[in-house]
Design goal:
The chain is of the alpha+beta class. The protein has one domain (44-183): tt1808, chain A, CATH 3.90.1570.10. Helix content is 21%, strand content 27%. The protein contains three helices and ten strands, in the order αββαβββαβββββ. It has helices spanning 13-21, 46-62, 116-129, and strands at residues 31-34, 37-40, 67-71, 87-91, 107-112, 134-139, 144-152, 155-163, 167-168, 178-179. It has a six-stranded mixed sheet, with helices on both faces. Strands 1-2 form a two-stranded antiparallel sheet. The chain has a two-stranded antiparallel ribbon with strand order 9-10. β6 (134-139) and β7 form a beta hairpin. The radius of gyration is 17 Å and the shape is globular.
């Protein structure tokens, strides 16, 4: 008996947004479109949520007017990807994104707990292809911050792993020092910028 060839359907952002607008997905479902595939994200632990909020607050203080800090909101990266990073720093003003999602970011922060492999294998290469200059991956279980910089050909040329007690300065704000411990507030008291 012959077996028919089965092909995987890769979705475009336009198709994905049409499905979402038409109510195809339950509203409480967390989804991301990455390289044409729709991924259902797991619920967030309290540690994950706290780290996202800590990153949001630290980056909001670090970036002046002219930047918007977006939390778990879509980025329109190419024809087949619409990820929702934990935190994205984008240029412009809030109103600039009233009618369309940003198509790039100055800095992305992903918080990884159960999503670690998804973030490393799918999302970080996607951000490199989209030429996002800097991505931070906060790995909760290891209590480290992986800093990826200088995208080229779908990967980052620079990766540095920072631990508690160390700090990072965003490429666009070299005068600002953000302590790794400030992104993990349940482990240390958060220092101010």
């Amino acid at each position: 008996m012959a077996v028919a060839d089965v092909e995987l359907h890769r979705w475009t952002r336009e198709e994905y947004e049409r499905l979402a607008a038409g109510g195809f997905f339950p509203p409480e479902t967390r989804l991301e479109l990455v390289d044409g595939l729709i991924y259902q994200m797991t619920p967030q632990s309290s540690f994950h949520s706290t780290a996202v909020q800590a990153a949001q607050e630290m980056l909001r203080r670090a970036f002046p007017a002219g930047f918007v800090v977006r939390v778990q909101m879509p980025l329109a990266l190419g024809e087949d990807s619409e990820p929702e990073p934990a935190v994205a720093v984008v240029s412009g003003e809030l109103a600039d994104y009233s009618f369309s999602h940003p198509t790039t970011a100055a800095l992305i922060v992903e918080v990884a707990d159960s999503s670690l492999l998804h973030d490393r294998r799918r999302k970080i290469p996607l951000y490199a292809w989209a030429e996002v200059p800097e991505v931070w991956l906060l790995v909760l279980r290891r209590r480290v911050l992986e800093v990826y910089r200088h995208p080229a050909g779908g990967s980052y040329r620079s990766k540095v792993v920072l631990h508690l007690g160390e700090a990072v300065s965003p490429i666009l704000r070299p005068d600002v020092s953000i302590p790794v411990g400030g992104l993990l507030p349940w482990l240390v008291s958060r220092p101010s910028l």
